[in-house]
Amino acid sequence: MVYIHPTHERADPVNNLKKRQLDLSRHLSVEAKARLPNPIKAIWKVAQVKPGTINMGNGDPHHTLYPVCEMNFIVPSVSESDPVQAWRAGTGDQQIIASYKDEPCALSLRTALAYGAGAGLKHVRDALAELNDRIHAPPKHMVSLSLGNADALTKCYRLLGDPGDSFLCEEFTFSAMTNAALPLGIKWVPIRMDKDGLIPSDMEKILANWDETLQGKRPHVLYTIPCSQNPTGSTLSAERRRQIYDLAHEYDIIILEDDPYFFLQYDLDIQTTTIESYGYTRAMADVLPRSFLSMDYDGRVMRLDSFSKILAPGMRLGWVTCNDFFAEKLDMLTDSSSQHPHGLGQAFISELLGGEGWGIDGFMKWVSSLCREYQRRRDLFMDVFRREVESSGLASAETPKSGMFVWIKINVERHPRYRKSEKLDKPGAPVTNTADLMNELFRKLLDCGLVMMPASTFAIVDQTGRIPTDGHITDRVNFFRATFVGTDEVIEDGLKIFARGLEEFFCY
Amino acid sequence: MVYIHPTHERADPVNNLKKRQLDLSRHLSVEAKARLPNPIKAIWKVAQVKPGTINMGNGDPHHTLYPVCEMNFIVPSVSESDPVQAWRAGTGDQQIIASYKDEPCALSLRTALAYGAGAGLKHVRDALAELNDRIHAPPKHMVSLSLGNADALTKCYRLLGDPGDSFLCEEFTFSAMTNAALPLGIKWVPIRMDKDGLIPSDMEKILANWDETLQGKRPHVLYTIPCSQNPTGSTLSAERRRQIYDLAHEYDIIILEDDPYFFLQYDLDIQTTTIESYGYTRAMADVLPRSFLSMDYDGRVMRLDSFSKILAPGMRLGWVTCNDFFAEKLDMLTDSSSQHPHGLGQAFISELLGGEGWGIDGFMKWVSSLCREYQRRRDLFMDVFRREVESSGLASAETPKSGMFVWIKINVERHPRYRKSEKLDKPGAPVTNTADLMNELFRKLLDCGLVMMPASTFAIVDQTGRIPTDGHITDRVNFFRATFVGTDEVIEDGLKIFARGLEEFFCY
């Protein structure tokens, strides 16, 4: 594990840590508490005391028998002023990211292709800890590699969740991941949202009014996507983050900060003078949102970062940053399941972030260039949306500050067949036919040749897969999640289809 | 999922399947039964009916923004008659395994670096299904990729095991993996072994005498390592495999066939004429042991294969072959946890096994060459062992037929301080001081500068991590697991240290 050394924003970090870092062992699941260390690795801890010891213990193939001596990736050079544009145009310089088995490089293939620790190789973790440190300056935390945020998050469920536990989440969320917790017996408690994301006062109301005799154990985990919340595209303000962290402190909540879109922020006021004096990392760190991790003196944040959106999803690499106690338990789970992340990706990341590759600053330059490109696409999307769609008055959307998604509100109450139910004698039943109309509209758009994700896909379901009707969420599913990261043609053509389908559906 | 078409050894495979493929849903865990499909993927099943549909649904980065356009690996050419020797000597030809984003290749980086299905990309699964088919000719089964056998096996635990379940295993086994089942509430029931591996009659005795009122639910899963069993190095004979499969059929047991050493077999009588007429794959298939998978008409075998020992452990890729029902449930678990295996490895395997790479037959040529090299090391190990160690009469070992390990028996009863306990009034207590003496010997060897793995490391422990004393396994821990896959120097030097340490310990 790698320590991240606090560097700024604290007068006396050591004393702060002593005061605040908490014993959080009560949050561990029965499974995590019961996990035994690997007996074979325990032997090795004893055995590796003495240098020069001959190892006849392990069944590791010798590196001379790995049938790979060199691995190369052709990547864009970040020497261009706008490397993403140069790469797209095919006009920019390229560079080779090379790893070797028998020649010097940042991380030898001898190491990368051998068995390793579940947490990942020190070289990669050090690089990511440095990146973390320069961006979040977190209090004492550790970095472990993951296979991306789905892997990391579902491991956090195993780490923290027991059957019967309730976890908090946003009322619309990335259902593939919330559904993944259901077979573990975890129940989701949705928090109301507005255009700025989850509403802290609703979170407080849930926690303050929790009745353990009726509802079971009070939630001790919050799952949240703070930037470009999936599906709503909202980004939590600094003020809300502070309120949420304070509530987590007050009610002893662990925050799972799932932040795959963190690096994709728009309308950033990046200072050229800062770039010139301190480089891209510092300049970006100055303007990126403040993460929950950065304010985590208690050690109650498990932050999940991913390369999926900024390099490629097939990379299947990310990193978890959390307190050292959780990190140790997480690494034991990894050693007992997926094992160490693949060496090919670890070698690639080592070289890319190393001195012969982009380096951390070059990586952040790529990221800032990527932000500009995605911002261009977002702006195009919103321009076309306003022109083609919003003008009809049938739909509207907030401009997202980050990520990949626009949350399009359908003004369903303007539909001729929109009904408010009179059945007030049936409390808990849906009071409008919003869900039915939205389902019709989804099919209509599909007939027109367009897929957008209906909001109902992201509503929290119960253990049987059904959306509960008691919270009237079915009255608020009048949204589509649309992505703006496709090509310009997809944006233009897609939104035109959307406008036409919408007008036909509303019988205009 | 990929069907593997049965090709030989069955007169009427379709009818056999109809007769034998069983409904095995009763074996699923509560967790596996409760798992919901991914609602986002469900939408896509609806949406992808119509070609030309515009996708504004998903948050996938566009391939033009992946910062990699080409990936190369320098590997040995398999045109050499003995490619492993040529590679080690640095005299052989090399070849480049290349993947491209925008140029033709077996599996485009556009696909490999995108999001994919948990089961892996069709291209890779097809190649592995073909390999399977040519070696095992299994009845109707499916292939899903894994991140290696630890990943695959621990997912099988989640798939099949509920708290309180008992699973069968060999009495000495790969404890890192059996320990991984303990926090899930799975109890292990060890089966006695001899020099040829697990003893079918002991397995039958356990099952026939099982008392559900006293012992809980009868075991419904067997975890076994049939080739080069870890740690004992034994390989199950064809006759034992048949007996074990028949018992599994009779007592309704699912067999987890963990076979990472399958491809490393020695003393094989490979027919040159078969190589010349049909290639390496057929020639190897003719002489490799018959797997449980190959006899699995019931669909009760989940076979786990890995590239760790034949390519490199850091590759973190393997494959699971099982019936289509389990495969679907396994893939749902993968989609809800680690997600699809990394694209870098999938691209590499696709090109390596494809027409521009080694091809399947070239791969099997590499494997057969690797077998010769490991056989050479095994023979060297056994020669040195007989000369330096066995001659003293203090230790002995069977010559392993496969894999990486020698199971060295220490003749502990010849030690001056060896004691048989007289406490016959304490049934269940250890009756010898074998465990203590072996612990001393392990420390002694460590002082001499040598690590071998003590047998006690591989004994089944209870939920608290302790070795139960009631089965007198502590009287039978007079073994070390030693590997013969190190360099010649390690073998020579290590065994000399072993001989000296042993003689000093026995006070000769």
From TrEMBL, chains A, B:
Domain of life according to the entry: Eukaryota
Record-linked InterPro entries: Aminotransferase_I/II_large, Class-I_PLP-dep_aminotransf, PyrdxlP-dep_Trfase, PyrdxlP-dep_Trfase_major
UniProtKB keywords: Aminotransferase, Pyridoxal phosphate, Transferase
Keyword Lipoprotein included in the entry's annotation: no
Domain Aminotransferase class I/classII large: residue ranges: 96-468
Listed Pfam families: Aminotran_1_2
The keyword Transferase is assigned to this record: yes
GO biological process annotation, one example: alpha-amino acid metabolic process
Cofactor: pyridoxal 5'-phosphate
GO MF annotation list: pyridoxal phosphate binding; transaminase activity
Family, per entry: Belongs to the class-I pyridoxal-phosphate-dependent aminotransferase family.
Protein name: Aminotransferase class I/classII large domain-containing protein
Species of provenance: Pisolithus tinctorius Marx 270
